[in-house]
Design a protein that fits this description.
The protein contains 15 helices and 24 strands. With 542 residues, the protein is α/β, with parallel strands linked by helices. Among the domains are: 104 residues, Flavocytochrome C3, Chain A, domain 1 (Alpha-Beta Complex); 109 residues, Methane Monooxygenase Hydroxylase, Chain G, domain 1. The strands form seven sheets. A five-stranded parallel beta sheet has the order 9-4-3-13-20, with helices on one face. It is globular and about 65 Å long. The two termini are 19 Å apart. The model has no long low-confidence stretch (mean pLDDT 92). Bound molecules: flavin-adenine dinucleotide (FAD).
């Protein structure tokens, strides 16, 4: 492993705040679910068929990354398709790092999970009585089920509708999980700031972490403001293994405005025929890849960055003018309306687009049943790293991953109900600086500029030294959700930048200017990190 200089240390405390569960209310449940997106709701609905389940979310039930999903959910359901083809496409996109067992599970169990979603009320678009499937980058044929261009909010509404009918499921909004509670190296619940600002302990033999992504670690992102990487940081503080976090997927076509989050122009628009053009109006993807605009995302994004650099520009252009305006309006109503609201006529104008941080490929390492390295803790959805995405997620596989692995968690917890903890748990906040009101904006900008689409040893060390400064400015005894989120952003930024520094090659969505090629001999491996800075690599089966 070519590493010439020492790796900067990360300063990750065990707990963000001092506490004693003997001095706060303790709320007991069989299964504690953290997060109300597709992963959390699926796990909660399934587990509540047999047990008492408590679901916590730090915002409103509908305020999730899931709500924002546009394109849809992938599944091999058409007659022309097969799970083998879906498997092959996922493996090809993953650039040599997919866990093949996990991918097999995803593609084999996915169609049944989609059918279950349809049975509980999800209504995907149809044409002449059959599901209307879209094609997205990296898929060899059309296999994306969708609801116009607002698939995520439709799925979210369906799941939330069923939640309301479940007797053994209680939902608590505006409850912020600060940390996981552990006793004897086992997760026994979570420490939570409740809506009135007071602290409570939620005690459970099984905790399912489904807290979503971490796009807000970057200044330019498509993610909503809840995606602050809390779950990754929380699990890391509790001692769970974290894997593959150098792989952050940037979306090639976010609308190039100053908005935060950046409005996404779904890949499905390219699936319908939209093309990318540079500042001179030239279509450039045809020279780069046989699938042109529908090449895997990492390839499209690097081509965009190259063209932006060559042309000295900060954007390229998406051209949907060849598509029938009636199709555009009917198939992409929210994009049509949003573009109109900023003065762009999708049928006649070129749309300015640029890359934005979009999806955390890595996360809390799990096995095929969603178990993390910390007994009692499961993880699902974007916070988890099941290995299905390898080094680059195939478009529309993430909603599917949440459905498939949350269901598997419910099967696995059957054997994990033996210990209901009742002893006190106490913790002490890690040593840190004073309670400084840190502005994380400059760090987020530095992450976009120096640890974003293109990275070098120097750029990553620069950002790590900023992270060290930010860590020392933060108080570790913080129990206000806004302070905890800042701490979590800083921790996750450190995990990403450090892993990206370690991986001295380019692969999938991780691109190093100083190591521009993949290095299969040294790097057909996954990087696993823990709180103690311990780093190990795990070989990937060929
Ligand atoms: C603009 C956009 C478009 C996308 N399009 C697609 C697509 O077409 N197809 C696809 O497959 N994927 C798509 N994705 C990705 C996909 O939406 C997400 O990966 C997926 O929805 C994540 O689901 P989740 O359940 O893991 O997390 P989320 O849906 O993000 O839910 C996370 C939950 O955790 C809660 N939470 C977080 N931290 C805490 C805390 N500290 N305490 C308590 N609760 C907490 C949040 O409040 C929220 O309820 C898109 C993403 C974006 C942003």
């Amino acid at each position: 492993m070519a590493q010439t200089r020492a790796l900067p240390a990360l300063n990750v405390p065990r707990y963000l705040t001092s506490f004693d569960t003997g001095e706060v209310p303790v709320r007991r449940t069989d299964v504690l679910v953290i997060g109300s997106g597709i992963a959390g709701l699926t796990a909660a609905l399934c587990a509540s068929e047999l047990r008492d389940v408590t679901l916590l979310t730090k915002a409103g039930l509908m305020q999730t990354g899931t709500w924002y999903a546009q394109g849809g959910v992938a599944g091999a359901i058409s007659e022309e398709d097969s799970t083998q083809l879906h498997f092959d496409d996922t493996i090809a996109a993953g650039a040599g790092l997919c866990d093949t067992e996990a991918v097999r599970i995803l593609v084999d169990e996915g169609p049944d999970r989609i059918q279950e979603l349809i049975r509980i009320g999800a209504s995907f678009d149809t044409f002449q009585g059959r599901l209307r499937l879209a094609r997205e980058g990296g898929h060899s044929l059309a296999r994306i089920l969708h609801v116009g261009d607002t698939t995520g909010s439709a799925i979210q509404a369906t799941l939330v509708g069923v939640v309301a009918e479940r007797e053994r499921l209680s939902v608590h909004e505006n409850c912020f999980v600060v940390d996981l509670l552990t006793r004897e190296d086992r997760c026994v619940g979570a420490l939570v700031v409740e809506p009135d600002g007071t602290m409570a302990a939620y005690s459970a033999p099984v905790t399912v972490l489904a807290s979503g992504g971490s796009g807000c670690v970057f200044w330019v992102t498509t993610n909503p403001d809840i995606s602050t990487g809390d779950g990754l940081a929380i699990a890391c503080r509790a001692g769970a293994d974290i894997a593959d976090v150098e792989f952050v997927q940037f979306h090639p076509t976010a609308l190039d405005t100053d908005d935060s989050p950046r409005f996404l122009i779904t890949e499905a628009l390219r699936g319908e025929g939209a093309v990318l053009r540079d500042g001179h109006g030239n279509r450039f993807m045809t020279d780069v890849h046989p699938s042109a605009e529908l090449a895997p995302r990492d390839i499209v994004i690097r081509a965009i960055i190259d063209h932006m650099r060559e042309g000295g520009e900060h954007r390229v252009w998406l051209d949907a003018t060849e598509i029938d305006p009636a199709v555009l309006k009917e198939r992409f109503p929210s994009i049509w309306d949003h573009c109109a609201s900023v003065g762009i006529d999708l049928a006649n104008d070129l749309v300015p687009v640029s890359p934005a941080a979009h999806y955390m490929v890595g996360g809390v390492l799990t096995d095929a049943w969603g178990r993390t390295s910390l007994p009692g803790l499961y993880a699902s959805g974007e916070v988890a790293c099941t290995g299905v995405h390898g080094a680059n997620r195939l478009a529309s596989n993430s909603l599917l991953e949440g459905l498939v692995f949350s269901k598997r968690i419910c099967s696995a917890i059957e054997s994990d109900q033996n210990r209901v903890p009742d002893d006190r748990v106490a913790g002490v906040a890690g040593a840190g600086g004073g309670p400084v009101d840190l502005d994380v904006g400059p760090l987020r900008r530095a992450m976009s500029e120096k640890a974003g689409v293109r990275r070098t040893d120097q750029s990553l060390r620069d950002v790590l030294s900023r992270i060290a400064d930010a860590s020392s400015a933060l108080s570790f005894d913080c129990a206000r959700p806004s302070d905890c989120q800042k701490q979590n952003l800083v921790t996750v930024a450190g995990l990403i930048a450090r892993s990206a520094l370690i991986r001295t090659e380019s692969r999938g969505v991780h691109y190093r200017d100083d190591f521009p090629d993949p290095d299969d001999r040294q790097w057909r491996k996954r990087i696993v990190v823990t709180r103690e800075n311990f780093m190990r690599t795990v070989d990937v089966a060929p």
